[in-house]
Amino acid sequence: MKYKNPIRAKREGHGENSGFSLIELLIVVAIIVIIAAIAIPNLLRARMAANETSAAENIRTITTASVIYNTTYGNGFPPDLQTLGGPGPTATCDSAVLLDQILSASPAVKSGYTFEYTGGDGDALLGAGCTKKGFNGYLVTATPLVKQVTGQRSFCANEPAAIYFDAAGKTAPSENACVALPVLQ
Fold this sequence. Notes:
Elements: H1 6-11, H2 22-73, H3 81-84, H4 101-104, E1 108-110, E2 113-123, E3 135-144, E4 154-158, E5 163-166, H5 175-179
């Protein structure tokens, strides 16, 4: 039966275009699932690579801040990460304002990595105006929070400021263990 009024025909379900069939919808959903299955692992790998790059740069920032602290305050290398930070605006030996609060506050977690700083090679002479002795050496490490999710490699550095990496993602327990690792180029 042909209707002369097309609006009435559509309302009663007799029009030419009554919507998508179930098969058509299932095909579209299957295509979206296939595309997501291809794209999501690549996205996760890209995010992990970005976290690793950020961790290596943060290690470099900490080593640079440590050298600046050493030359500025005559207290050796800083006693801890908190000393490199500080609320500012005035920098002192105990609050050098060389690092942002995320890296200098405990726990130092940034971009999926945990950062740790330990002094080594004995105490330095106490600098003028300082309340905590610095060290003659240090070890700074960056370890992924969740291996294979936030990062794969761990990083470390000491006073020569070369950055080393561990492909297994383990934290270097000492300066000797750190310098035995491959150098990040």
